[in-house]
Amino acid sequence: MARGDLTRLTGKAGGPNCDDDDCPNVYLDEADGSIVVQGHQCPAFRPPDGEVLARIPASVLKEAVHALGW
Predict the structure, then answer these.
(1) Phi, psi (5° rounding) for residue 11?
(2) Are 9 and 27 in contact (CB under 8 A)?
(3) What is the pLDDT of residues 36-58, one digit of tens each?
(4) CA distance 65 to 63
(5) Residue % of the chain over a pLDDT of 90
(6) Three-state helix/strand/coil letters over 1-39
(7) Rounded Cα–Cα distance for residues 49 and 28 (Å)
(8) pTM (predicted TM-score)
């Protein structure tokens, strides 16, 4: 996956200024249709190698669902 394949679904309107890509966001991977989540690392437990836990506000997820028309 390349960064150019990602379409940002959140943080576009009415949210915080996230132009430095430093806010929790949800992206659609145009190459395969999967969802990519950017958030703060969650230390609740250690996931398997190659995986991470990301913490995002519920409002970000709701905005992504709305952007997808779900």
Answers:
(1) 75, 15
(2) yes
(3) 999 999 999 999 999 999 999 99
(4) 6
(5) 69
(6) CCHHHEEECCCCCCCCCCCCCCCCEEEEECCCCCEEEEC
(7) 23
(8) 0.79
Distance in angstroms (rounded) separating the CA atoms of residues 15 and 5: 23
| 67 DSSP assignment | H
CA–CA–CA angle 7, 12, 18 (5° rounding): 95
| CA angle (50 as vertex; 49, 51 as ends), nearest 5 | 95
Using the Cα atoms of residue 62, residue 35, residue 50 and residue 5 in order, give the sign of their dihedral.
negative
Which of 18, 52, 1, 54 lies closest to 9, judged by CA?
A: 18
59 CA to centre of own chain: 12
